[in-house]
Each structure stands twice: as structure tokens, then as C-alpha cells.
Write a structure and sequence with these properties.
Structural class: mainly alpha
CATH topology of the largest domain: Four Helix Bundle (Hemerythrin (Met), subunit A)
Oligomer: single chain
């Protein structure tokens, strides 16, 4: 076995940790409508600039025992969770698709989904700055690939998936009269572009199953009341991630094939 195939998983994992660190910046700053570029990383309480050695993914969190070096403010567990989650998913993508354009496309797709999921979970708001450009970028990539492959099958599949996602959640938003947000429509459209028709269908019904199970648990445990808003974006994201890897298998099982 070539040496590169032995060290590449480690490289991909470390790369995922670093991207996860950047995604944490996106999550924290987009919530407050701040630039993701300036200023440099800093403690939200004491505003002190974070040194590079305190900004190493996961490692710094453990060495600092989850506290700021300067003011001892607790650092949210979100940071190592997002970093590790990103690294694991990136590694899974590499394991499934290897060195391919899917590796790049799905890494970008997953990065956007993770930012959306954590922002929605915290604020019940899905930022247009990710969903709308994401849909446009996805369609552009599908057009480029269509000309490269000299086949428009995948482009048609992406368009069909986007329409399905937009239509289903658009209908739900209208019928529920505010029970679900417009951001969920755009998120479903984004997922449709990248996953296509079949996997978008899998994503939709998986998200309702996951959302239903968690929703019932939250109500029974009294962590949420009937009138409390429960963000649906994280369940769409979970459904999309499952469908990205196993969507067709799940759909075939569900249809009895």
C-alpha cells in the first residue's frame, strides 16, 4: 500500500480540525452579525487577542481546561465538538470518495451545514448568507461538471432536488402558518442542489423522524414547552448527512427493494 494512503487519513483529520476551528469563528460571529475576518480571534469577555498556541484545535481547549488564559472565562464545549465533528465527517468523506471532486464539494457542503445547524440551534435563525450563495454555488458547480462530463443528468438531478426541497418546505410553511421558518425552505433547497432528488427525499423524511423523536423527548422531559420554538434546521442537517452517505440504501430499504 502506498505510503500516501497511510498518512492521508491523518492529514485529512487534522485538516478537518483546522476547518472546524474556522467554522467556530463563523458560528460565533455570524450570530452577532460580525465579520469573520476581522478582528483576530479574541476572548468574548476580556477581548484579549488569543495567541496562536491557545488556538490549536481541541489541544488548546484541553490544556487550558476549557478556560480563557487571561480572564478564566469558560470556553464553550461547542468549540471542540465542532472541530472533532468536522474532522470525523471529513475523514468519512475521504474514506468513501477518496481523491475526487466529491471530496472538495462535500467538504464545502458539510462545512456550510454545520455552521447552519449550530447557529439555528442557538438562535432559531438560519442565515441567508450561507443558504442562498450555497444554492447558487452548487448550481454553478453542477453546470461546470455537466459540461466536463458531457452529461446533464446530475444537473437535472440537482435542479429536481432543489425544487423538491423548496416545494415541500414552502408548502409546510404556508400550512403551518409560522410553525416553520422561511430559512428552512432555503436550507432544504440548498440540500437539494447538493444531494439530488432521491437523497433529498430521504433527507426530508429522516429529518421529520429525527425531529419528532427529539421533540417528544424535549416535551416529555419538560426541557421545552408546547409553545417553545424548536429549530428544525439541525434535524434537516442530520438527515442530509445521513443521506449523503447512505441515502439510496435507506430509500431502497424503505421501498422494499
Amino acid at each position: 500500500m502506498p505510503l500516501v494512503w497511510l498518512i492521508m487519513p491523518l492529514i485529512v483529520f487534522i485538516f478537518g480540525l483546522c476547518i472546524g476551528s474556522f467554522l467556530n469563528v463563523c458560528i460565533s460571529r455570524l450570530i452577532h452579525d460580525e465579520s469573520i475576518v476581522f478582528p483576530a480571534s479574541h476572548c468574548p469577555k476580556c477581548r484579549k487577542k488569543i495567541k496562536w498556541y491557545d488556538n490549536i484545535p481541541v489541544v488548546s481547549f484541553l490544556l487550558l481546561k476549557g478556560k480563557c488564559r487571561n480572564c478564566f472565562e469558560r470556553i464553550s464545549w461547542q468549540y471542540p465538538i465542532v472541530e472533532i465533528l468536522t474532522a470525523v465527517i471529513f475523514l468519512c468523506i475521504f474514506t468513501k470518495w477518496g481523491f475526487s471532486r466529491e471530496l472538495i464539494v462535500y467538504n464545502l457542503f458539510v462545512s456550510g451545514l454545520l455552521v447552519i445547524a449550530f447557529i439555528d440551534a442557538k438562535t432559531t435563525f438560519i442565515p441567508d448568507v450561507i443558504t442562498i450563495p450555497g444554492m447558487i454555488a452548487g448550481l454553478i458547480l453542477k453546470v461546470i461538471f455537466a459540461f466536463i462530463d458531457k452529461s446533464f443528468t446530475n444537473l437535472f438531478d440537482a435542479g429536481s432536488g432543489m425544487i423538491l426541497g423548496l416545494a415541500v418546505f414552502g408548502f409546510i410553511v404556508i400550512v403551518s402558518r409560522g410553525g416553520m421558518g422561511i430559512g428552512d425552505i432555503k436550507l432544504a433547497g440548498l440540500i437539494g442542489v447538493f444531494l439530488g432528488l432521491k437523497n433529498t427525499f430521504s433527507t426530508i423524511w429522516l429529518s421529520f423522524i429525527l425531529g419528532g423523536i427529539v421533540g417528544i423527548f424535549l416535551l416529555v422531559s419538560k426541557l421545552k414547552g408546547r409553545k417553545d420554538a424548536i429549530p428544525f434546521g439541525p434535524y434537516l442537517v442530520m438527515g442530509a448527512l445521513i443521506s449523503m452517505f447512505w441515502g439510496e440504501n435507506i430509500l431502497n430499504w424503505w421501498l422494499g427493494h
